[in-house]
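User: Batch of two.

Assistant: Item 1 of 2:
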Amino acid sequence: MGGTTTSKADINTEDDISDLDKQISVIYSNMAACQVRLKKVGRAVECAETALKRNKFNTKAKFRLVQGLIEEGSLIKAGSLLDELEKDKPDDAAFKNERAKIAAKEKEAEAKQRKELGGMFDRGKKN
């Protein structure tokens, strides 16, 4: 049966991955997509990571991981993974959309931090 898995040391190309691992990776990637839509971020990240353990070349799983990480607030890690994806497809609209989400979340976090720390140094001001 074609259900054996290959050792990670032997995997250099996608052709080195068994058909079973490819199929399982696709299933977990699809589960991650569902979890992202359901806003179950932790589970989405978990499914995407499992998909990538089975097939590190699964770009859809990597993209789902980026989506989950953005929702989770792990913007630096999401940005780094997005950089990897953009190397192969620099003009992909979905990647640009996720890049815009990262920028918006960073701007939102910066504004929140400014608001929270805004009056921190106003020492003796009293009304």
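Item 2 of 2:
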Amino acid sequence: MTDPQPPVPPVPSPDGATPPPAPPAPPAAPAAPAAQPTYPAYGQPPAAGYYAPPTNTLAILALVLAFVIAPGGIICGHIALSQIKRTGEGGRGLAVAGLIIGYVFTGIFVLYIIGVIIFAVWMASMGAAYSTYPY
């Protein structure tokens, strides 16, 4: 494509002097580093293919319940693991952590109850041996 109008010649100044020469061209920009990853702009969703699978809700619940109601964490952890295996969701680590913590806390609670029962039986037997009441 050619320009239909001819170039305009430089206009001489009123005193007859020639115009000053054009300033030199700016230096070329430095070359961009090779293979830098591109990130999405702030507030923009990542590009397709970068989404992580959603986290299973029961896996999160299993971890929370393991600290509050340990048997609930165990139940939710087992259900979450089966759902994760079936659907491919994320959160397997959360479910396993909920299971482990739930089992540990349940074991500690069972040992505590056994200790309380043993202590109560021991105190009852010692109380009868040292009774000051006549029979």
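The chain has a mean pLDDT of 83.
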